[in-house]
């Protein structure tokens, strides 16, 4: 097995872009991956100029079509090992499908597409090509998300009765889209954001956290999509009541008008034996509450198995933290963990070996599909005066 760094190509990321930067730092985090080329911008000349101005040397392409075609022709070792797609939502499907068809693994931003039909096509294409494909649900990359998943899925809290999964922000409480903020401009535009702004943008993160941690699926939902800021076509507040496939219930909610809230993603799981509380703004800790006992606060890298609540804890989970507790891990570490696990699958794929891509470490295209199916059903429910709507399942 070669230990050369994997080559990564960026699709999107020029001209004041946001999420490319945490990603590109995470790509370089371990020294085993590096950005080698990019199609950074819709205007071809500007795309080349932005690549020339990139903080370290990369090859610039005039468009992602040119990049995918040129890279696919190169031999393994010279070409990109995976593409990172960080364009606005309406420009996810086309480059993702082209990468898959060219045999290039991809890490795609959420929400994966602007329609369920497109998401279904991507699922089928990934399956047919048998290629690693990740979806960048950042917060799964926190050690505390993996630990929460272990606790809930191993039954330590008993049967799950109720889940409150939320992502609350305040940055669109005013008409931010009129203030020259490019990230706000496209998010409130149905042509570029899709069926839902708030639900697609951050409701999908809350849903993903629920599904990842509990292993439960949504069977039916009742959606309320609100537009609190005048003149908007899409929701800026998203509240969904959910029935889960174990008979439990949940609330999946998101808001962009809750002034003071920044990136307040969290989950509370109430089981028959206890409660788990986690917030991404304090991502180093998981709180467990048991009846008649003081609360237990578990810190990353300071967990011991068989402590009276935890039984055996998988060795890989205990060894997973990268730095001792008290040296805080945060957003960039979460991104790095996702890229690290994705790298493992891409290396296996390059070597012609089986790879995992099973949703246990990072989100898959099937998870991305669930996000779009959820938002689509919520929009339908809202249009039907908040009727209960069945969640579609993947055929
Ligand atoms: N996982 C997360 O935590 C997270 C956080 C923020 C954003 N996102 C997602 O990431 C994506 C990008 O969001 P953002 O906030 O960074 O947006 P942004 O507006 O900051 O960046 C979008 C980038 O795409 C580029 N682009 C547009 N059309 C292009 C084309 N045809 N060819 C090449 N590049 C093109 C733009 O120039 C820009 O560089 C969205 O889908 C968003 O939902 C995810």
Description:
This protein is of the alpha/beta class. The protein folds into two domains: 6-139 and 336-365, 3-Layer(aba) Sandwich (Rossmann fold); 143-325 and 372-383, Dihydrodipicolinate Reductase, domain 2 (2-Layer Sandwich), CATH 3.30.360.10. It is 34% helix and 21% strand. The protein has helices at residues 20-28, 44-52, 64-73, 93-101, 116-129, 143-153, 182-187, 190-193, 198-214, 315-319, 331-350, 365-383, and strands at residues 6-11, 33-39, 59-60, 82-85, 105-108, 133-135, 160-168, 218-226, 237-244, 249-255, 264-271, 275-279, 285-289, 296-299, 389-390. The strands form two sheets. A nine-stranded mixed β-sheet has the order 14-13-12-11-7-10-9-8-15. A six-stranded parallel β-sheet has the order 3-2-1-4-5-6, with helices on both faces. Helix 1 (20-28) packs across helix 11. The longest helix is centred in the last third of the chain and has 20 residues, at 331-350. The radius of gyration is 21 Å and the shape is globular. It binds nicotinamide-adenine-dinucleotide. The site of nicotinamide-adenine-dinucleotide has 25 residues, from helix 7.
């Amino acid at each position: 097995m070669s230990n050369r760094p994997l080559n990564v190509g960026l699709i999107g990321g020029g001209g004041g872009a946001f999420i490319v930067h945490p990603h590109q730092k995470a790509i370089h985090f371990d020294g085993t991956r590096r950005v080698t080329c990019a199609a950074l911008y819709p205007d071809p000349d500007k795309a080349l100029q932005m690549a020339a101005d990139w903080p370290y040397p990369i090859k610039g392409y005039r468009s992602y079509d040119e990049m995918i075609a040129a890279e696919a022709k190169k031999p393994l070792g010279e070409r990109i090992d995976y593409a990172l797609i960080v364009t606005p939502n309406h420009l996810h499907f086309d480059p993702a499908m082209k990468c898959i068809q060219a045999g290039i693994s991809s890490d795609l931003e959420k929400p994966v597409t602007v329609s369920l039909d497109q998401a279904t096509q991507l699922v089928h294409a990934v399956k047919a090509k048998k290629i690693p494909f990740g979806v960048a649900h950042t917060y799964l990359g926190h050690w505390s998300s993996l630990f929460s998943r272990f606790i809930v899925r191993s039954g330590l809290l008993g049967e799950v009765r109720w889940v409150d999964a939320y992502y609350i922000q305040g940055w669109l409480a005013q008409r931010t889209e009129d203030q020259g903020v490019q990230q706000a401009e496209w998010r409130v535009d149905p042509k570029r954001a899709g069926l839902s702004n708030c639900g697609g943008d951050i409701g999908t993160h809350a849903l993903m956290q629920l599904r990842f941690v509990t292993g439960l699926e949504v069977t039916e939902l009742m959606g309320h999509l609100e537009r609190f800021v005048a003149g908007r076509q899409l929701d800026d507040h998203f509240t969904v009541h959910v029935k889960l496939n174990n008979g439990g219930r949940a609330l999946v909610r998101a808001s962009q008008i809750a002034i003071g809230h920044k990136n307040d993603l969290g989950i509370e799981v109430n089981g028959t034996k206890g409660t788990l509380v986690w917030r991404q703004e304090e991502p180093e800790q998981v709180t467990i509450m048991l009846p008649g006992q003081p609360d237990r606060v578990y810190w990353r890298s300071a967990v011991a198995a068989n402590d009276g609540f935890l039984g055996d804890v998988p060795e890989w989970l205990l060894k997973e933290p990268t730095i001792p507790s008290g040296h805080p891990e945060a957003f960039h570490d979460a991104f790095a963990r996702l890229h690290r696990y994705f790298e493992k699958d891409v290396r296996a794929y390059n070597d012609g070996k089986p790879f995992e891509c099973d949703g246990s470490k990072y989100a898959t295209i099937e998870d991305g599909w669930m996000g779009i199916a959820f938002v689509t059903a919520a929009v339908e429910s809202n249009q039907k005066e908040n009727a209960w709507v069945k969640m579609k399942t993947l055929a």
